[in-house]
Amino acid sequence: MQKKNSLRSTASNAAIVQESNHSTSLSVVYYPVFLNLENKKAVVIGGGKVAERKILSLLKAKADITVISPDITARIAREKQKGTIKHINRCYRNGDITSAFLVITATDLPRLNKRVSVEASCLVNAVDVPSLCNFIVPSVIQRGLLTIAISTSGVSPALSRSIRKEIENSYGKEFSEYLKALQGIRAEAINVIADQKQRGALLKSVASAGMIRMLREKGAKETREKAKALLKKSKNVSCR
Question: Which of 59, 100, 150, 176 is 20 to 30 A from 142 via CA?
């Protein structure tokens, strides 16, 4: 029980799905974090449309997903056929989440959701019931490697969605394209520029407010070429 209480006090804002729809206590202070769920065991209790949304988000994160439900949607069934998820065709039983890293309970049975929450000694989210969760999930803007998460700590999911809609048009696919280029530029800079101060200055320059402005005004291609030119200049200085 001590482990569970510890997890409750360091809640996560990590999954790429929308924030719970019920407000939570104003005394809760959430710790924002992005989780690496690749190959981590994630158990979803429930097989309806809400569970489906959670499963699709977990699939994007490359989690090892087990669904426990006697009934599942057609989309979940297709994922089962493809082998991307495991399905246990029955109701939840004690011990089903013993080895889980993360659990989402998405049923319309309040008593079952509470039971799962009480039994979980890991990260657990009961959809729409923040009091049964030790993490909530934000409203998210995803542009390739760029993820912008917005949360109101469960107070107003509707406001989170409104804020997301307000800012998502400011971050188009050009950010995804440029960030992919920056991934390569950073790796090359680490390999060829030995001076830490010089390397840091380059990495700041290719991610500056001016480069963001150029990205919006001139697009990813021109901004990428500018960043490569800055890298080349910095490499030449390093070689002197």
Answer: 100
